[in-house]
Design brief:
single chain, alpha+beta, four-stranded antiparallel β-sheet, 54% helix, 15% strand, globular
Length: 558
């Protein structure tokens, strides 16, 4: 029961529209279901909140649920109108989140109007999907991260090279590398939509032109296609409605991609590789600190990307990235993720321009959703602020640290040397030179494309393994002193030498005191907010119309 009440109290706060209130000293007059100080909660607002909650959660309507929903609305009034919120309103991260939510709401409406409303599922679509659902395809493919590299691979295939030979260049994954990109058997719904459409439509044995997928580009060769020998009309009719949903979802993904191809031309976007590395380094060191330190230096003003003649310098790219919420920003841990994020921002700019040209940002429905998002964001930040103000005694902090010590460990760390080049053949040649006794320092200094490490003879010092992205497991599992490569990553090929390892260990409490305190505050946030609300309630007169609460009829939500 306690867990149920907690769920109602906090889930309802974020899942539905926040209720309004009336001023001018309202009374329990049949229109207001509750009065909080000088603010009233109107019956119709409560009914809408309750109805939305019941539809969202699927719970039954009862007095306990009603009381908790009303308490949520009372708490919202207390937190918003009877407490000081200047710190939140002036919080830069709060303002950044509001702007991000505004943009996402406008883009969602654009997609709905320009893409989803135009999707039609025909009888032919359904029968084609049913037929393909009863087929099994075996295929192999070659992956390329860019259109240009995909076309180079395709040309080499046309000139007589094989999937088996090219797969050894393309893949670091041993299974794909050694099998010529063999994917095995799959059926409809298992693969990327564009990949799947091509695999089910080209003749067996034919090699496709490069196909754009969500991950990059694929060149496909279908090895076989087998159809279930018995397909009945009754089976089709029984599965028709479920097929309709699946086909619609499939069409949504394809339609989104086709629409984006009209709005955004990927071939017109180019990146400065060295500038990307500089940008990533500055991100890791802290946006503002790096930009202030760089001042007007030529490095920070170097072009990072160019799209249709317009360029973003490193400084401009950092400013754009700084507008991204932290939960997205923290996922950028290598240059490929950085390039993907910047590509997404360029795409977002194109879509927002289109939405504003069409006036979608002014549509009442969009404005209403933006307001809802503002309410949700405010109360999330408010809860965090309440917890952040909680003073935690040393004894409680020590106990929490002891009980959760696994959360306060150093990361495994690696010290490596690297040589990074953009062709597998060159990486293989460098590895052979190392095996013949050539010094790593000299080869790294003369050949590595990553200038900041090349200047240090390929040394990058001890770094947490997470900084190595998709390479972390491979590097950590390599013995100290061993050299490995070529390893494909980030559209590059690397040769690495493992110089040293440091295994994870607990931080002393005095080193992570603030982190422990913040973790404790987040863990016990619900408890702290509940205590805070009790103190606010004690200072404000609250009246509830119990009769109205019990007797409200929600016929439209039954």
């Amino acid at each position: 029961m306690i867990r149920f009440l907690i769920y109602i109290t906090f889930a309802a706060l974020f899942m539905v529209v926040f209720g309004g209130c009336q001023q001018n000293h309202p009374a329990l007059d049949g229109e207001h279901i509750a009065v909080v100080g000088n603010d009233g909660i109107i019956q119709s607002d409560f009914e809408r909140r309750l109805g939305d909650f019941l539809k969202t959660t699927g719970m039954d309507d009862n007095l306990q649920v009603r009381r908790q929903i009303l308490n949520n609305m009372i708490h919202e009034v207390l937190l918003k109108d009877y407490d000081n919120n200047d710190a939140i309103i002036n919080d830069e991260s709060y303002q950044k989140r509001l702007e991000w939510n505004r943009r996402q709401t406008i883009l969602a409406y654009l997609k709905d109007r320009e893409i989803y409303q135009n999707i039609q599922v025909t009888e032919e679509d359904l029968r084609t999907a049913f037929y393909r659902l009863n087929q099994k395809v075996t295929a192999r493919h070659l992956y390329a991260p860019s259109r240009e590299k995909a076309h180079r691979l395709y040309e080499r295939l046309q000139n007589g090279e094989t999937f088996a030979s090219l797969a050894k260049e393309v893949y670091s994954d041993a299974k794909l590398r050694d099998s010529g990109g063999y994917l095995g058997q799959f059926s409809w719904g298992d693969m990327d939509r564009n990949f799947e459409e091509k695999a089910f439509s080209i003749p067996v044995g034919e090699i496709s032109q490069p196909v754009k997928t969500e991950q990059g580009y694929s060149i496909i060769k279908v090895e076989s296609r087998k159809t279930h020998p018995i397909i009945t009309e009754s089976e089709y009719q029984n599965r028709k409605e479920k097929l309709r949903q699946a086909v619609r979802i499939n069409k949504k993904h394809v339609a989104e991609r086709d629409f984006m191809d009209l709005v955004f031309q990927e071939q017109d976007l180019s990146f400065n590789k060295e500038a990307l590395h500089q940008c990533l380094r500055m991100m890791r060191s802290g946006f503002k600190e790096e930009m202030e330190e760089a001042g007007s230096s030529t490095v920070i003003n170097n072009d990072c990307l160019t799209y249709k003649g317009d360029s973003w310098s490193i400084r401009q790219a950092l400013h754009k990235l700084d507008d991204i919420p932290d939960f997205h920003l923290n996922k950028i841990n290598d240059t490929q993720a950085l390039q993907d994020a910047l590509t997404g921002l360029v795409q977002q700019n194109q879509l927002l321009q289109l939405a504003e040209e069409k006036g979608y940002d002014k549509v009442p429905q969009v404005q209403e959703k933006i307001q809802k998002a503002r309410h949700i964001t405010f109360y999330k930040f408010k809860r965090n602020a309440i917890a952040d103000k909680k003073i935690i005694p040393d004894s409680a902090l020590q106990t929490f640290y002891n009980e959760h010590i696994n959360q306060f460990m150093t990361e495994d760390e690696l010290s490596i040397q690297e040589i990074v080049v953009d062709e597998r053949g060159q990486a293989e040649d460098l590895l052979h030179q190392l095996q013949r006794g050539q010094p790593f320092d000299k080869l790294a200094r003369n050949h590595s494309l990553r200038q900041w490490s090349a200047k240090r003879d390929g040394h990058i010092g001890y770094s947490p393994v997470s900084k190595f992205g998709n390479l972390q497991d491979t590097l950590w599992n390599t013995a100290v002193g061993k050299t490995i490569g070529p390893i494909a990553f980030d559209r590059y090929f690397g040769v690495f030498k493992i110089l040293g390892k440091k295994e994870s260990r607990p931080y002393p409490l005095n080193k992570v005191r603030e982190e422990v305190a913040n973790t404790m505050r987040r863990t016990l946030e619900k408890q702290y907010v509940s205590q805070y609300l009790d103190s606010l309630r004690s200072e404000v007169t609250i009246k509830i119309d119990e009769s109205l609460l019990k007797n409200i009829q929600l016929s439209s939500f039954n």
